[in-house]
């Protein structure tokens, strides 16, 4: 039996000797000789999307508790899964109204129920060939395929699409931490070996990864086992080499893909203020790491961290969700927000309204900067200047670094010439520090302590190579 310390927990880490097919790519700083991790084009394209949704809809939707987590004997009755109004186009409507650019579907969660008609068969411990018969094909809505409907809708709405598949837990097969549990089996569970389980995982991943187009993201929640790693890596190379992989590296620096992303370490929707595009751990990362491994921040719309639809479960208020946006996307972290259809298969009206409200705020605040006629310039000293043609009210700044050749800015200061009634006509208004920080990366949003009326903005930086800027923009959203 494989012990839990053989589970590859899926952080973009490297300790000791490097191993595996994928080695980190980096260049050497011309300034201090440090390593500058280099991204793949797929990682940069994924960061560009900024917002996605993680769709939870399967048999756990019909439970009072939030899924089968930590209840290893629970195999919910398949007759529970009886949605009457599955509307995957409606799911995409909410994703688009939020401003999401990709959607990842939970195809199989920890209960073991598959929301597509899996045709996988396997041998049980009595050497009988049996079907994997805990799927939508055996449910009251047999004949439907939610995976296919989801993919069709995502393509229709021009959203990237991907799959979440729980590798390390499957209650139907009596598996926890990628191990078949010893002893007795609970009602509804099937008696198999560890080797059989690994083959089932491979076969079902093959079904998901073949025939559904190019996937944007593949989720390994909790990682994968050492015995599964090689087959998963080979299958990814053959079928989905372009996908970014959530938890795509293990703690020894062995990766199943060149395009890993890391978990931020919390499901609250808050990245650390200092959050790098590089690093080894499930936190703010490490600017000195040779691994380019951006962070993804997954969180829920419902309160109490509930992922699956909960009857009468309150929603987080719009003010809190706006704060989530600023503490994820505004801190160089992709925001992946839960989308949880109700037991009919539709998005509840209250949920849809909140997605739209958040999307409207983001668009109204950030789609168009103030001072469109301002003069922008930068220099080799790492400075960026915005000269305004008149005193302009602003309350925040958006900084974006061009990371094509790595994340190179190590700290920054934002200075402003602030006009008021005493100096509005003065030519020599002094600069005043209005914000500062360390990591910029794909995007950093700084909200000032209070609105100001500025005539000029100067951003100063420290760096390990001369920065290239994507953009610097000023906004007023008070």
Automatic annotation (TrEMBL):
Q: Cite a single GO MF annotation.
A: alpha-L-fucosidase activity
The record ties this protein, via InterPro entries, to: GH, Glyco_hydro_29, Glyco_hydro_29_N
The top EC class, named as a word, is hydrolase
The yes or no answer to whether the keyword Transcription is present is no
An example GO biological process term is: fucose metabolic process
What EC number(s) does this enzyme carry?
A: 3.2.1.51
User: Which first-to-last residue range defines the signal peptide?
Assistant: none
Q: Where does the Glycoside hydrolase family 29 N-terminal domain start and stop, copy by copy?
A: 79-363
Q: Which residues form a coiled coil?
A: none
One Pfam short name? Alpha_L_fucos
Q: Which organism is it from?
A: Penicillium patulum
Q: Which UniProt keywords apply?
A: Glycosidase, Hydrolase, Signal
Recorded family membership: Belongs to the glycosyl hydrolase 29 family.
Keyword check for Signal: yes
This chain belongs to the protein called alpha-L-fucosidase
Q: At the top level of its lineage, which domain of life is listed?
A: Eukaryota
Q: Which SUPFAM superfamilies match?
A: (Trans)glycosidases (SSF51445)
